[in-house]
Amino acid sequence: MEALMASYGGSSSDEDVDTVSPSSASASASASLPQLSDETESFLPLPPPPLSLLDFPNSTSALDDLPIGQAARVRSFPHVQGNYAVHLYIPVYIPTNARKEVALFLKKLSKLVPALHLVDIDIPLDILCKDDHKLEQALAREFHISLSRTVPIRVHQIDSIVTMLRQKLQSQRRYWIDFSKWETFVNDDLSRTFLSMEIIAGGLMEIRKHIQVVNEVYKLHNLPEFYKEGRPHISLAWALGDLSKLLSQSVHDEMKKSMVKEKSKRCIFTAKFNGIECKIGKKMFKICKFPDE
């Protein structure tokens, strides 16, 4: 049993799990102030992320000289020896031809909301925006659309969960996902605000079907299902506290200016669905395959 546990990279004590995954917000409140419905049982401060998180694909550690935010991160569940955090998601990469536009939008927001940090690597956005190359490099990272909550499971549940997910999701067709709307999300305890891109059209139906399947597997393992009114999205930046009014107003103002300039633009960018990943502890599992693979 100890050897099996070691193969998953440690228990929940080794996992830096935030109060909410950046892409796991739901709309339990108003459209202008979506809130998360995750239950938080305890809050244990976590150390800042390691510098290795700043190494990007095809990179020579160009971001290592940037300061990392020291904001306290907290767990969404108490540490129990032998537990492993599990999370299902769709990996997303912002296309090269869309990064300049996204970077420009982030630059504008960073001036209006200087408390924003880039998701996961926790670099202050206003500092990152001073270097166009580093900002676009950061946007080349993997983002994700959550299909489940991040929850703890026991080691004996791992094989069963992965097997069931693969059985139910093994055959998938590729489809296009439209990221059409900038949105602001805030978690239940108002400790974090997120700047996200929401999916409201292309790909939404397919993603909701994935979530339904994951919910079925979670339910069979007595795990909490995904948010009932979940709104699929990727999150790019976060800020401590409830800055939803300021961030929402800033997003609204900038979007209004953009609409005047580009009235015909339908979405921010489009990405192809390339599969579903399951992260358990520090181990990754590819869940679905495509006919051409």
Number of helices: 7
Radius of gyration: 19 Å
Average pLDDT reading: 79
Main sheet: strands, sense, barrel: 5 strands, antiparallel
Structural class: alpha+beta
What fraction strand?
15-25%
Structure description:
The chain is α+β, with helices and mostly antiparallel strands. It contains 7 helices and 11 strands. The strands form 3 sheets. Strands 1, 3, 4, 10 and 11 form a 5-stranded antiparallel sheet that branches. Strands 2-8-7-6 form a 4-stranded antiparallel sheet.
Task: Please render the helix and strand layout as text.
Layout lengths: L1 H5 L76 E10 L3 H17 L4 E2 L6 H4 L3 H7 L4 E4 L4 E4 L3 H12 L6 E4 L1 E6 L5 E7 L5 H17 L12 E8 L3 H18 L7 E4 L4 E4 L2 E4 L7
Antiparallel strand pairs: 1-3, 1-4, 1-10, 2-8, 5-9, 6-7, 7-8, 10-11
Helix pairs in contact: 2-7, 5-6
Can you give me a brief rundown of this structure?
The chain is of the alpha+beta class. The chain contains 7 helices and 11 strands.
Keywords:
single chain, alpha+beta, 4-stranded antiparallel beta sheet, globular
